[in-house]
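Feature request, filed as a ticket because there's no other form

It would be nice if the structure record came with a short human-readable summary line next to the tokens. Right now we just get the raw output. Example of a typical job, pasted below so the devs can see what we mean:
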Amino acid sequence: QVQLVESGGGSVQAGGSLRLSCKVSGTIFSTYSMGWYRQAPGKQRELVAGISSGGRTNYPDSVKGRFTISRDNAKNTAYLQMNSLKPEDTGVYFCNARVDGIAVWGQGTQVTVSS
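Raw output as currently delivered:
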């Protein structure tokens, strides 16, 4: 059974940084595409960063240049480095793993950015 466990969330002031981790177990991590999504109160869940099994990354304009997704296949872990955080980055951040049309979600970790 594939399981994802996020960690690293917290509260920071605007301009600060956080690094989120997503530990994956129960599968061959290197074959999965990984993504980080966030959901703000009253809003839909949105993609903030994605990385393919081959290491190709993609970001929406809202976080480009501030967020960096990476993966360490030896540790079965994906990361999201978030710099220059803004209050609008506040939300629950979810890790997602996808392969062959199958998607698995983590439980989420709260990120709160105060002005």
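Something like this underneath would help us a lot:
The chain is about 0% helix and 55% strand.
The first strand starts at residue 3 and ends at 7.
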